[in-house]
Amino acid sequence: EADIYQTPRYLVIGTGKKITLECSQTMGHDKMYWYQQDPGMELHLIHYSYGVNSTEKGDLSSESTVSRIRTEHFPLTLESARPSHTSQYLCASSALYEQYFGPGTRLTVT
Amino acid sequence: DQQVKQNSPSLSVQEGRISILNCDYTNSMFDYFLWYKKYPAEGPTFLISISSIKDKNEDGRFTVFLNKSAKHLSLHIVPSQPGDSAVYFCAASSSGGAGSYQLTFGKGTKLSVIP
Fold first, then answer.
1. CA–CA distance, A2 with A64 (Å, rounded to integer)
2. N vs C: which end of chain A shows fewer Cβ within 10 Å?
3. CA B112, CA B70: separation in Å to the nearest integer?
């Protein structure tokens, strides 16, 4: 059973606010990922990390930033939320190829 | 340009029958393939995977077939159950280079199993 957690599950926030989406895993995986997904579309990789103090941007351009100070924790921050950031954000971790996902955060920016 | 394509947005199958979900890819560097299942408002759940050195992998009711020459894979679910109703995503990865372990996803196929 994969143990990866995301909070909050749902967030409605006004334009211009700073938000942090939390992601934690208890599996000791080195690799962690953030995806963005809109209904009927594929998952788009926005950030990934292959270890502590290592982060990279993914294929989809994003105004968010991430940090990886501890193996188990990979938070994503939006400095100034905009309506275009409305989406589902999914966090995942892996040892090799099989990625295990958290439940996601549904973000709505009004 | 989409590198992983799931050309059927939806599929309806009678309970007890076989469900076949298809996936095509264009990147010849892909050598590992996975299927995920996703319920609304939840994260994807890993189902089954296959390496390019195999052409078939089976796990219970789920079997994945890989045809490398056609760059095509399929997921068979037998027998289909109402609880299988979900969106199924195909994903692919390559083992070499900077993109190792990163997954490229298709847009998904929504499976509805009718009781």
1. 26
2. N
3. 27
- Interface A:B, Cβ pairs < 8 A: 55
Output the tens digit of pLDDT for each of chain A's 110 residues. 559 999 999 999 999 999 999 999 999 999 999 999 998 888 999 999 999 999 999 887 778 999 999 999 999 999 999 999 999 999 999 998 999 999 999 999 99
Question: Three-class SS of residue A57?
Answer: strand
Residue with tokens 């995301």: A6
Taking the C-alpha atoms of residue A51 and residue A53, their distance in angstroms, rounded to an integer, is 6
| B34 touches B21 (CB < 8 A) | no
Q: What is the Cα–Cα distance from B55 to B64, expressed in whole angstroms? A: 8
pLDDT digits (tens, 9 = 90+) for B7-30: 999 999 999 999 999 999 999 999
Contact yes or no for B91/B37 (Cβ under 8 A): no
- Nearest residue on chain A to B4, judged by CA atoms? A42
